[in-house]
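Lab notebook page, bench 4
Experiment: in silico fold of construct C2
Operator: M.H.
Input chain length: 149 residues
Purpose: comparison with the prior construct
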Amino acid sequence: MVLMAVSRFKRFFRSAAGVDVDKDDLRRYSDFVNDKVYDLLVIGQAHAKANRRDIIEPWDLPVTKGLQESIHRFRRLDEDIELKPILEQLARLPPLDLSIGEETVGRLPEIVGGLSVALAQAFKIVDPEVKNPATEQWERTTSVFDLLL
């Protein structure tokens, strides 16, 4: 990840929840993002198939009320930080049985942004005293997302 992107991510996590991240955290973050995008798209694929469509549309993705609120918080934060262009490149699209619609691909950066806000805030819920999440906090926090997404 380019040095400019690293500083933006650090600023983003600080703004979102007062959490400091380093390069190791950003590698874990990248894994988290790709795992969750895959999970969302797998469910989206199931919804599209159930509706006899061969393209995954935005409404097929399981975006909950909480995730939608996090997306709105991301939009407000991103006005200053401008992470969206970086997130467009970060989320790898996994191979699936169905095609992913252009509108769906276009929404993924903001969905990833919403997941990122939720992740940063979840660190503080899991451990209110955390400043720089260690492996244990990453494992606990991502386990919560694995239960819900």
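Observations: Residues 23-50 form the longest helix (28 residues). The chain has six helices and two strands.
Next step: discuss at group meeting.
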